[in-house]
Batch of 3 targets.
Target 1
Amino acid sequence: MGPEAVLTLGRSALEVTIVIIALLLIPALIVGLLVSMFQAATQINEATLSFIPKLFITFVVMLIGGPWILQVMTTFTKKLIENIPMMIG
């Protein structure tokens, strides 16, 4: 297994990781921004106020996008396992 194969494998793993994490973090980031704007407008300075909406939206995104995340991870793992013989020899 040459260095370019290792780099390709690492790049693929990072791409899958970034896509999955982005699916979960971007909605939480947007909700956090909206709550922060609400806090600034109303001058409510409560640190825990943004935690519950972000937790809720992350849970909802996991319920909706969970099957897709599982499919992406399963596909990547299958391809990885199928390519083991080519990587060894």
Target 2
Amino acid sequence: MHRHFLLRGLATLGLGFATSLVVAGEPPSVTVRLSDANDGNMLLSLSPPSVGAGPVEFTIRNDSSIMKHEFMIAPWTGAKNALPYDSKTQQVDENKLKTMQGVEDLLPGQTVTVRLSLKEGRYVAFCNEPGHYRDAMSGVLVVISTR
């Protein structure tokens, strides 16, 4: 059994643009891009790379025209490429992560917006489709205290 919160099929209309303007009371926003190229290279990017603790709004876009991707995020103090990994399934072992959150099964071209609550610390974001994490689909988000 997975110990995390997942959203499946939550789609939003729009072009996936995020703004850096923060209105009083509005949570900070992070734009996440998930992509793969014809040469097989994959990428997960986060902008900005740090936010304040508390609610954070993620706008996640799967830029692929052919592949399904995921956006998973978990607190992690080690190297971003050192998450617990199961070589048989070619995936991060989700059961070994304490408080993982995210969105599974983003279809090609799909954009979703999700609000997650994050405590102060260092997080690793990754795609956990088989083989994608090891193919460089990971990034680091630093969550700083807002006190």
Target 3
Amino acid sequence: MLFNLLSPLADDFVAFNLFRFLTFRTGGAVITAMVLSFVLGPSIIRWLRGRQAQGQPIRPDGPESHLITKKGTPTMGGLLILISLGISTLLWADLRNGFVWAVLIVTLGFGFIGFLDDFLKVTRANHKGVSSRMKMILQIGIAVVAAFWILSLMRGPLQTGLAVPFFKDVLINLGWFMIPVAVLVMVGASNAVNLTDGLDGLAIVPVMIAAASYGLIAYLVGNAVFSNYLQIHSVPGAGELTVFCGALVGAGLGFLWFNAPPAMVFMGDTGSLSLGGALGSIAVVTKHELVLMVIGGLFVLETVSVIVQVTSFKLTGKRVFRMAPLHHHYEKKGWKEPTIVIRFWIIAVILALIGLSTLKLR
């Protein structure tokens, strides 16, 4: 909004020229989202606590300690992230950019699905909300619309091409099959983040790390000079998502203030589904879908642990892990919650650095 209102006045007022710089607006988005989170956080948490007498329902088959340490903590804290992220993005991004709107709609749409799930859980006082089948149908529906929208904004080979990391000229033409691939990336990322969200602060920091990484990627692919130098596929207009990523980092930092152990609020599916969907849609826009598996490798590990556990139990009747997802396995082994969370953060940083190295290693 500020870009659209003030940048045209830059010729008359030199100070307004700052709003033409993507880096300045990204910094503004980070600060705005973070301040909004700090300011709105206490009120939203009080509101959630007042309407959730028993807090988030705790899985009876989960780690025993959670029945004591997590009981009574309100959920739906993702609302704080979405409000701060949405306002900051609308304030600092170029609202004429279709990619911004597409990613924002995916984020809010997936957030709405998560909100319904959380709402049913707290009103029924049961850890089961919207059925898995219904959630998947709704997610796929939103992702299909978003995929057509995003690809319609691209031109040439990029529209139906899948870029391969480490190879500068490789762009696999998938034709219309690019639509289901894009849907898989968005829905898969959404549910992967959802599975990771199980301990205080565990999911939000890796999300911020991935968002910061994709903020850099979006800036580079959206700049013809930098993309040509790095020999990566240029996506005109994608650079504006740097602002969105900055807002996501700022909102995440503000939320972490209240979600740090011991958490005052959980993000719930409202937050985890929306944040995962945001990362997936950004990966599709920037043509770095496969790199998301590296940068978001922690989410992949958590998801694979669940798949392996379920498959092994159905086929052999035996469990590979003491409990899935993976972070619960280490809880069962006796690791303290802060130890698991911080070590997983370290893994997320390492994987993000490996993912970013693909920008240069070609």
